Amino acid sequence: MDFKFVAINLEYLAEIKDWKYDGFIKKIYVDPYFENTDENNIELRGPGGCIGFVALTQNKLAGLFEYYFRGEIIEIGLALNPAFVGKGYGKDFVEQGIAFGIEYFAYQEEYIKLNVNINNKAARRVYKKAGFKEYDREDDSIEMRKYI
Questions:
Q1: Is there a contact between 111 and 103 (Cβ–Cβ < 8 Å)?
Q2: If exposure means fewest CB atoms within 10 Å of the residue's CB, which of 46, 58, 125, 129 is most exposed?
């Protein structure tokens, strides 16, 4: 499946805020976007100051992809629309979101990382399929890296 990534806006955020999941994650945390909106809604910043984009497919909201800069390294956060979960789109979504971020930010470092809860087995499987490898564990979190 092909995804098109576009800047996040308040309308997309309102829809994402209502997403509900049956699995490990129950809800997506988007409140900081609403709290950190400038008066012209030009620059929305999410949790931790991330820059968010939505993924569209066939004009439907398919996912959320967030890019955090930790020094020079990009850390990603992502969520697939619950209507798309379990249908085999996860690997494509992750890979295309990474490719978009590399191009958009002219990223030239050697890897991209993410953190996932140790109990989120479904997400960990998807990340491994997309080329991520476990790098470090701390309490209930696993840092994974994908070398590019």
A1: no
A2: 58
Each residue's pLDDT tens digit, 16-47: 999 998 876 777 889 898 887 666 656 788 99
**Taking a C-beta distance cutoff of 8 angstroms, is the pair 3, 55 a contact?**
yes
DSSP state of 45: B
* The pLDDT of residue 42: 63
Q: Which CATH architecture has domain 4-147?
A: 3-Layer(aba) Sandwich (3.40)
pTM for the whole structure: 0.92
Distance CA 147, CA 144 (A): 10
Contact 112, 76 (CB under 8 A): yes
In one-letter notation, the amino acid at residue 6 is V
- Pick left, alpha or beta for residue 10 (phi over 0 → left; psi -120 to 50 → alpha; otherwise beta): alpha
Expressed in percent and rounded to 5, the helix, strand and coil fractions of the chain are 30, 35, 35
The 10s digit of each residue's pLDDT in 130-139 is: 999 999 999 9
